[in-house]
Amino acid sequence: MALRAEAYRNWGRWGDDDVLGTLNFIDDDIRRAAAALVREGRSISLSQPFDTDGPQKGWRRRTNPVHTMTDTGTDAERGNQGFPHGIGGADDVIAMPLQCSTQWDGLGHIFDHGFAWNGRRAGDVVTSDGDLVTGIEHAASVIVSRGVLLDVGRHLSPETGELADGHAITVADLEACAAAEGVEVRRGDIVLVRTGHYTRARREGWGDYAGGPAPGLSLTTAGWLHRTEIAAIATDTWGFEVRPNEFDVPAFQPLHQVVIPNLGLTIGEMWNLDELASACAEASRWEFLLAAPPLPITGAVGSPVNPLALL
User: Where do the record's region annotations for Disordered lie (predicted)?
Assistant: First the structure.
């Protein structure tokens, strides 16, 4: 793993002060070209719901969202809100970990041997005050680009559209899927990889969706992620990479450890790709405009997101 980290390290590529990593691959020309992919005007949300019926079970203090009403229609009917002339209203608040549902991992989320993205010391980047350097707010206006869906679940398991837990997706799988779809992965793309794991979880119950065995990218795809110069990648699984790790050595999220702090790659997890997959299959078109800005939460190392694919 250490060899992969060093071989694919992008430290200094965009200067010592860089805070965006591979998101730098998205430029105005790429956005203009992506906008031209909107032909039907169809908009598809790629987000899971944000509610108490979510996958989280408390690991690392991650819980499902708690939504609370602070003003209601009942209050308005009873006239106890203190507003004049009969006007009433509703108000609410939500409490949740920023990575409990559909989300981006920011560059301050994972460290490699005490180092963060671009070779900075982890403790100089993220403190109790938040990510002081690469906070997710820096990406707020950036993540709009050409999206490419690689429906690996449907490609490798056409009967079910779902990969088995523990299936490690290889470079050969990604390239064969792209070839079968007739789509080319290009610099600046946001690649979406559908495994079918979310589909199975919604049908059979969450089970161990959050943190348990799952299909996902093999550690051996690190070179492909570097070579293709994609801007970001997202999957329909909790952890992006295969779980458990495919090698018989102690490891926890080794692909995260390589690609976030070393490549500077932004990763999305728990995306709902099912409606998009059906739309792409019907149209035989696997590229689209993708808009997925994070909430500009100052100093956050991740963010909820409601990604929109426009076809």
Answer: 47-80
